[in-house]
Write a structure and sequence with these properties.
11 helices, 25% strand, Hypothetical Protein Tm841, Chain: A,domain 3, 6-stranded mixed β-sheet, 277 residues, alpha/beta
């Protein structure tokens, strides 16, 4: 049996883990009151509260080598493992998993940079499970899943630039100018797996229009997900809009995680999808 190991920014529901004994999670940690704890033990609301109180990014940490080695040890030695990690554009989790896989001494571990996060990692997991059930060899499953990571598209817009500035993603000048001019950027992971700006607009309506245009340019799609952080109303509205545009797809709605909230803040709206192109 092929096992799948994802980091906690994938936000896999507990019910899903209960239904799939071969799916596992290794947590990132987040510092609350100077103590690092698994992000599953922290709420988004708490992260935002701490960030607003201190006007600083709430520190986070990738899984340690030991965390990965422990996760590998929970899988029978004869069973292969595929690790799907948060995009390396924003985290060292992928590199840490590669190092741990080497140290484990096991030859049947495949570590993949998902080139996305959140619901995008779940989309890849669904692909992986489908491939694993098709009686392909482990190496072939890994190759096909690796190819699919290049089909992932991740884009989002934020309510405020404060969190990006606090996390060092943009400079103070850009933050000030953006605030004064009320610029609302649409940020995406470009084809080189780099955080980039897709559009600079001044309203949420125009930001959503830019995201929908990018989705249309990369259609047809296999899977489409809407993600939000403390913006459920906006998320539901965008989900309904996309469901109307793409009735043949199931458009899902999920939230980000505390780690993502620490760098992006409340009000985020995003579209993460798997392009069939």
């Amino acid at each position: 049996m092929i096992h799948f190991l994802l980091d906690s920014t994938s936000a896999i529901p507990e019910s899903y883990l209960e239904q799939h004994e071969n799916v596992h999670v290794v947590p990132l940690t987040i510092s609350i009151n100077q103590e690092y704890i698994p992000e599953s033990d922290v709420t988004i609301e708490k992260v935002i509260e701490c960030s607003e109180r201190d006007k600083k990014t709430v520190p986070t940490s990738q899984p340690s080598t030991g965390d990965f080695l422990q996760a590998f040890s929970n899988v029978p030695e004869e069973d292969p493992v595929i690790v799907l990690c948060l995009t390396s554009a924003v985290s060292g989790t992928y590199n840490g998993a590669v190092l741990a896989a080497r140290q484990s001494g096991r030859k049947n571990i495949c570590v993949l940079d998902s080139r996305t996060t959140a619901i995008g990692m779940l989309q890849l997991l669904e692909d992986g499970i489908e491939l694993a059930q098709s009686n392909l060899a482990f190496d072939e499953v890994c190759k096909k899943l690796f190819d699919l990571t290049f089909h992932m598209r991740t884009e989002f817009t934020v309510d405020t630039l404060d969190y990006l500035y606090r996390g060092g993603r943009i400079g103070k000048a850009a933050s000030l100018i953006g605030g004064i001019l009320k610029i609302r950027p649409v940020i995406y992971l470009n084809p080189n797996n780099e955080v980039d700006v897709l559009a600079k607009v001044r309203t949420e309506k125009k930001a959503i229009a830019s995201m929908v245009k990018y989705l249309e340019e990369n259609s047809p799609c296999k899977r489409i997900g809407v993600v939000h952080i403390e913006n459920e109303e906006g998320g539901k509205s965008l989900q309904a809009k996309l469901q109307e545009l793409y009735p043949e797809n199931e458009v899902t709605l999920t939230t980000g995680t505390p780690v993502l909230a620490s760098y992006l803040g409340p009000g985020l709206l995003g579209i993460i999808f798997e392009s069939a192109k």
